[in-house]
Write a structure and sequence with these properties.
The chain is mainly beta. It contains 2 helices and 16 strands. It is found in: Cytoplasm, Cytoskeleton, Flagellum axoneme.
Length: about 240
């Protein structure tokens, strides 16, 4: 069913409302029979999209409300989350950053609502990957992540001022036990273990009381020195 404007060829063109055979509805702009421009699409499962369309596909800026209560607001390309956007999960967690072909990919920040912790760094095909910083209430971890887990060298930085350097490794014993039970990737099931190597001392930093002169004050500071030089030269002549 369609109720709206049409062009001379009889195509849906301009503003209109439509009900699709599956029960979904669309209220928005059309161009040559296709959804194009701003519109609102309501799905029978409770989902809803408000934003831009191009040739029947979500394309441009838009907000998608999912049936589970989660929401995405940001860029779309050919019906995919692509570009920059914010995804708020049903449990209150949120991701803000880059998207590529519907997945978190590039640089982004994930905030865990329950703990207040934040992951700031790289993402690869929806998983935490690359250089990143995991920030907690009173300390943070800086290192490399792979498939959502830290891997290799890194360091913990505590608010007290000290740092603990080390690396994340996978237990060889755990690997062997896992391979005996079932032949599949152990890295997805066994958490890496932290091996501390060095702890730096707390370094207290005290800011200097002296402040450098501003550009306007600099000539005034140099003036007395110049006057003293002139006086010495005059005395030498006498």
């Amino acid at each position: 069913e369609y109720d709206g404007e049409r062009n001379s060829e009889g195509e849906r063109h301009g503003r209109g409302k439509a009900r699709l055979p599956n029960g979904d509805t669309y209220d928005g702009e059309y161009e040559h029979g296709l959804r194009n421009g701003q519109g609102t699409y309501r799905f029978t499962n409770g989902a809803r999209y408000i934003g831009e369309y191009r040739q029947n596909k979500k394309h441009g800026q838009g907000i998608f409300f999912y049936p589970d209560g989660s929401k995405y607001e940001g860029d779309w390309v050919d019906d995919q989350r692509h570009g920059y956007g914010v995804y708020t999960f049903a449990n209150g967690d949120s991701y803000t950053g880059d998207w590529f072909n519907h997945n978190r990919h590039g640089q982004g920040t994930y905030v865990y609502k329950d703990t207040g912790s934040k992951y700031v760094g790289g993402w690869i095909n929806g998983n935490q990957g690359g250089a990143a910083e995991l920030i907690h209430l009173n300390h943070r971890f800086q290192g490399i992540f792979l498939n959502g887990n830290p891997k290799g060298p890194g360091k913990y930085v505590f608010d007290s001022g000290c740092e603990q350097h080390g690396e994340y490794i996978y237990s060889e014993q755990a690997k062997e036990e896992e391979e005996e039970e079932e032949e599949h990737s152990y890295s997805l099931l066994i958490a890496p273990k932290w091996k501390a190597m060095d702890i730096t001392k707390v370094t207290l930093w005290t800011p200097s009381v002296e402040q450098p002169p501003s550009p306007t004050e600099a000539p005034q500071v140099a003036a007395p020195a110049q006057a003293a030089t002139t006086e010495r030269a005059a005395a030498a002549e006498e």
